[in-house]
Amino acid sequence: RTLVITAVPLEDGVAGRGAIAVIDDVTERRRLEAVRRDFVANISHELKTPVGALALLAETIMDERDPDVVERLAGRMLTEAHRVGRTIQDLLELSSIEVEEDKVREPVPVRQVLAGAVGRIRPAADQRQIRVELLEPDDDLAVVCDRRQLVSAVFNLLENAVKYSEAGSTVRTWAEADGDVVDIVVEDHGMGIPTRDLERVFERFYRVDQARSRRTGGTGLGLAIVRHVVNNHAGEVLVASREGEGSTFTLRFPVGAADPTALERTT
Ligand code: ADP
């Protein structure tokens, strides 16, 4: 902990007239500054890799005469370009979620949130031959939230569930009210997450397996987006996972957020 104490003389240089001591706790400021610097360094690294690959592929194409090879290299360029595009899109999403000014809060039926997110993941799930089961909650189960943010959080969880499961596997999502909280759950029977990594997976750009995340087109930002969304809604995200068996992510919101009259109180 660093406290900076600045003595401000009350009268120009005249000793003995007293001074005001300005005590400034710079520890937190320094920490935030370090987090920001790390983040910028990480972004630069994340973008430099695919952009470097793009440049190399373009150079190779310029000297290549075989149309089959050119086509293959162009395909790889497209993959890298998509990677850059997805990273930028996720960064924009993350920063728009961080901006609290344009926050919208309305009671949204959880059923609609799940249906919206499942609808978005279907094409990718079908392509990977993964079944997505939606156990529809009651119509009156609602969360006071920014609908777009909540759909995005559930979608990111479903996307991971699909990405880190094998073909033929089933991903399940449901919601339930339990005492003081509303839970939205996404469960998979995929590769799971080692216990030592569980705490870190919500950090920006943290991946358990770099190579696998790259192969599956991951940006390393999905769970950071999820964590931000729950923080914005006074909720929490829980994860239970066992390597080789699968993972269960739970978005938990206080029951106040499920109470439509809470809208009047929060706005
Ligand atoms: P990524 O874009 O790499 O998927 P995320 O922030 O969404 O980034 O997730 C961070 C890391 O957590 C992933 O790289 C992966 O290693 C791990 N992970 C997340 N969800 C799951 C899951 N359902 N099953 C197994 N591993 C997961």
**Fraction of residues in helix:** 40-55%
N-to-C order of helices and strands = EEHHEHEEHEEHHEEH
Q: What ligand species are in this complex? A: adenosine-5'-diphosphate
End-to-end span in angstroms?
37 Å
Shape descriptor: flat
Describe the strand arrangement of the main beta sheet, using strand numbers: 4-6-7-9-8
Largest sheet: 5 strands, mixed
| Mean pLDDT over all positions | 88
Structural class of the secondary structure composition? alpha+beta
Beta strands, count: 9
Oligomer category: single chain
Low-confidence stretches: 262-267
Rg, rounded, reads: 24 Å
Instruction: Name the beta content range.
Output: 15-25%
Number of helices: 7
Enzyme class: transferase
GO biological process, one term: cellular response to phosphate starvation
GO cellular component, one term: plasma membrane
Keywords: Kinase, Phosphoprotein, Transferase, Two-component regulatory system
Would you give an account of this structure?
The protein has 267 residues and is an alpha+beta fold. It is 47% helix and 22% strand. The chain is built from seven helices and nine strands. The chain has helices spanning 27-62, 67-98, 110-127, 147-163, 210-215, 222-232, 262-266, and strands at 3-9, 19-25, 106-109, 131-134, 142-145, 170-178, 181-188, 236-242, 246-254. The strands form three sheets. A five-stranded mixed sheet has the order 4-6-7-9-8. Strands 1-2 form a two-stranded antiparallel sheet. β6 (170-178) and β7 (181-188) form a beta hairpin. α1 (27-62) packs antiparallel against α2 and α4 packs antiparallel against α6 (222-232). The longest helix has 36 residues, at 27-62. It is flat and about 85 Å long. The protein starts with a strand and ends with a helix. Residues 262-267 have low confidence and may be disordered. The site of adenosine-5'-diphosphate (ADP) has 22 residues, from α4 and α6. Adenosine-5'-diphosphate (ADP) binds next to α4 and α6.
